[in-house]
Amino acid sequence: MGAQERLKVDFLSSEEALDLFLRTVGKDTLTLHPDMRNLAETIVDECKGLPLAVITVARAMATRKSPEEWRHAIRLLRNHPSLFPGMRGKVFDILMFSYHSLNNETLRRCFRYCCIFPEDYEIHKYDLIQLWIAEKFIEASNYYEARNHGEYIIGSLKLACLLESGESENYVRMHDIVRDMAMSLSWTSYDNILVQGHDGVIGVRDSAEDQFATARRMSFFGLHSDNVDLRQFSRDFKTLLVRNSQLDQLPKKWFQNMSFDNYLVVLDLSHNSCLTELPVEIRFMIFLRHLNVSWTNIRELPVEVKELTDLKTLMMDGTSKLEKIPAQVISCLYSLKVFSRILYPEELVACLPLDRLISLEELECLHLDYLGATLGTPEAIHYIFNSPKLQKCINWITIMDCSDLPSLYINDSCLRKMEHLEKLQVRACHSLEELNIIQEQKKPEGILPGGISNYSTLTGQEFFQNLSHVEFWDCPIKEMTWLIHAPRVQTLKISNCHSIVEVIGDNSGPAGTGQRQNIFSYLKDLILEDLPMLRTIYKQALSFPFLARIKVAGCPNLRKLPLDSNSANNSLKEICGAESWWDQLQWKNGATKHIFSSKFVKCQ
């Protein structure tokens, strides 16, 4: 119709949904028993604010007079809402219209697959897209094209109201009733997805034995090891996710039960802190394409992993207890496209960076599309920044605990090759005082890659085309003027850097209007914590067209923010800091202070 504006009609709030339910079910039914009001609230919670579901359930319950009937209805809504009276014809048929309106089978398969996650689960978009890629729902010439396709699919499912936005832009979720429809569709479409959680097996058949015998994809979430039921699987079994559980080992009996002609392609064991080893029998999974052991406590990667020559994705993020990767194991995985081992701040104590576990030459001999690496030596950093193959695939780099790195110089030609670099983190590098960019011909003799020795020659040039997240923590860095060449940064976090005086320094070149418009022009989150010497973010006001949050803590000498009336926009939600710090801020005039006062939120 050429509408000029799309207006989202949101779900009902809890109060609105309850009011609609009570008006529909009628007072006579609610006064029959003292428990009815509480049971009504529980039933409304199961409808998750979907008006059509609230009305349908209320009409069905208006004739039910005993609390026992209502408790049965609650169990039915939780486990099999499609069997609830009226839901199939009045609710599911309408939702099915959205499903059948999807343009192609790829969209429909990707939608059905989302029910492999439990109810109310915040699904990370990249986790979901990686699984879609592993299942070959999405195929492209490289990982980044496939990821873009996955983003497009998520957008299409959200526009069809089959997926919802999560708590942040990186997450999505499914409405419980939509998820139940997806679960039913998975069994009529031969996806046969089975999910087991605290409430038991969730599928579409009454017999758990039938479900286990015919399931093709299965997930376990939040269970103790004793409750993870790994039985004999069919030859067509493809996918196993055991996440956020207390799984301490993969039972050898399970491998014995698994037939060798089984085509398991996805194995996700992430977020199992009790898991300390992978069995050597993993070598039998020769068709495995996706292996995720992130945030487990495995101590060694078994040498038998090298038999997994079909493996395309190996995720090992957060494996802080990992002590050994046998030589030549990674280099034998010649199909590998995605490899990541990133460590996080809480894991920095007594953990080994990637370069102390394997030779980087092993990565270089592969044909990676995506590399996430935590490095801990100047030699490893030098190797990455001088390897065209690794430069091309590096997506996330964390430099940690590198005490012999007083300065980091990165030449401009290197940065142009690092087109996929999205995240840069520097942590606990206690001698690092400067990071700069230089032109290749001006690189100082005998110094590691990096550094601007003459800012004027590089003014206005952009090198970090996709860098979106920058974090510096516990480093004696004095300024970060190199950020003028990274205008697409969305998150900037500087913490516990006691020497930094200014973020963008006075030596950043001419501050013309055009250049100022590019500085932090994509920034959404600015977090400054424990920076006692910090005095300046930038010497002039910036527009910050997308800035949503500023958080300042432990920065007593920061008396000005680079804000003026032109910086006020609808995207800025809050300026978080101590009240004493806010009261001491200096503003260009009273009008500017008044504009931003409504954004201030007191925090510790």
Task: List the main descriptive attributes of the protein structure presented here.
alpha/beta, Helicase, Ruva Protein, domain 3, Arc Repressor Mutant, subunit A, 17-stranded mixed beta sheet, 3-stranded antiparallel beta sheet, 15% strand, globular, LRR_dom_sf, plant defense
Characterise this structure.
- With 604 residues, the protein is an alpha/beta fold.
- Among the domains are: 77 residues, Helicase, Ruva Protein, domain 3; 87 residues, Arc Repressor Mutant, subunit A (Orthogonal Bundle); 197 residues, Leucine-rich repeat, LRR (right-handed beta-alpha superhelix) (Alpha-Beta Horseshoe).
- The chain is built from 19 helices and 22 strands.
- The chain has a 17-stranded mixed β-sheet, with helices on both faces.
- Helix 1 crosses helix 3, helix 1 runs parallel beside helix 4 and helix 3 runs parallel beside helix 5.
- The longest helix has 17 residues.
- The two termini are 50 Å apart.
Overall strand count: 22
Helix content: 25-40%
Decide which structural class fits the backbone.
alpha/beta
* CATH class term of the domain at 397-404 and 416-604: Alpha Beta
Strand content: 15-25%
Unreliable segments (pLDDT under 50, ≥5 consecutive)? 445-457
How far is it from the N-terminal to the C-terminal residue, by CA?
50 Å
Can you give the mean pLDDT?
85
Task: Label the CATH architecture of the domain at 397-404 and 416-604.
Answer: Alpha-Beta Horseshoe
Largest sheet: 17 strands, mixed
Shape: globular
Radius of gyration: 27 Å
* CATH topology name of the domain at 397-404 and 416-604: Leucine-rich repeat, LRR (right-handed beta-alpha superhelix)
GO molecular function: ADP binding; ATP binding
Keywords: Leucine-rich repeat, Nucleotide-binding, Plant defense, Repeat
Protein name: NB-ARC domain-containing protein
Domain Disease resistance protein winged helix: 116-182
